[in-house]
Amino acid sequence: MAEQRISIEYPLIRQYLVAVDPVIRHRTDAQDLRDELADHLIEAVERLRATGVDSDTAERRSLSRFGEPAVIAGLINAIPAKGNTVHTIFNREASFFAFVAAILWTAAAVSIPFAQDNLVAAWTQGAYVTSVLLIGVAIAASGVVLLSLNVQVSGAFDSIAGIVATLLGLAIVATLLFGWFLFLWLGLLIAATAITMTRARASAVTTGAPTVLLGYVWPVLTLLVLVAAIFVTGPAQNLGSAAIIVFDVVALPLVFLVYAAGNVLLGLRMRALMPHGTAPHDAGPGPFITA
């Protein structure tokens, strides 16, 4: 359906498509989606006009029945691009990885006090390595979820998803090599999470609580904890001080637990949006949207 004709004959539908476009334009199949959405709306209008309803009223009724543009755009973004095997690979078990990540972050939170000097017990290399490994694997599991969201939004593994993957990879390496340097690996994780949640904020998976928790609450909390780290760590730190104990036993574990909660929310939302199990690798031809 030519855009010029839509603008002239169906001005309200044109406005609706313009409202949807910013959310889906990243996708490789964006034009197909726009065309199909327009076809569905125009068919609904024409059915009403055939019963004697005037054009303006028919457009308004059809759009009202179809739903708000932001809601429809979010639902569209939850649909894999046609024939996109990359999307399927990342999304098929993304909810599983979200729950695994939540468990790993919780375990990492519990391990933190044991990895520090004289908080729970005498420091051992084994306790430190265990804590670092838990954090590294937790980042990896969360990374699958974040990449899944990026691919869902764009319909492909694009350049921004590549940037997120690079940040996550660097965060894992930094954790394993410099686990004590919180500013490095937590900063990289904040960046990867912020990019993803900003990009996916209109997705049906992230709207509401997941975006609030992982897009706002967790980054702010983590930054505050990192600032606090400046005052409680360093060459002159007192390992037995109350500040160190609060930081290692309360503040840092809380950062991990909040991130774990965010992964749980994402996992539950993904599970709710995929009630019929895994999608096939290639859905083949067929409608993106059903009336």
The tally of strands reads 0
Beta-strand residue fraction: under 5%
Which radius of gyration do the C-alpha atoms yield? 24 Å
Oligomerization category of the chains in this entry: single chain
Helix/strand structural class: mainly alpha
Shape verdict: elongated
Q: Whole-number average pLDDT?
A: 81
The tally of helices reads 12
| DSSP helix fraction | over 70%
Largest sheet: none
What is the total number of structural domains? 2
End-to-end C-alpha gap: 18 Å
Helix and strand run: HHHHHHHHHHHH
Which ranges are low-confidence, i.e. pLDDT below 50, for 5 or more consecutive residues?
Answer: 85-89, 275-291
Key structural traits:
disordered C terminus, single chain, mainly alpha, transmembrane helix, Perm_prefix_1, 291 residues, transmembrane, membrane, 2 domains, 0% strand, elongated
What this model shows, in words?
With 291 residues, the protein is mainly alpha-helical. It folds into 2 domains: 3-77, no CATH class; 85-273. It has 12 helices and no strands. The protein has helices at residues 3-9, 11-24, 30-50, 55-66, 69-77, 85-91, 94-111, 125-154, 159-177, 182-199, 209-232, 242-273. It is elongated, with a radius of gyration of 24 Å. It starts with a helix and ends in an 18-residue tail after the last helix. Residues 85-89 and 275-291 have low confidence and may be disordered. Keywords: Membrane, Transmembrane, Transmembrane helix.
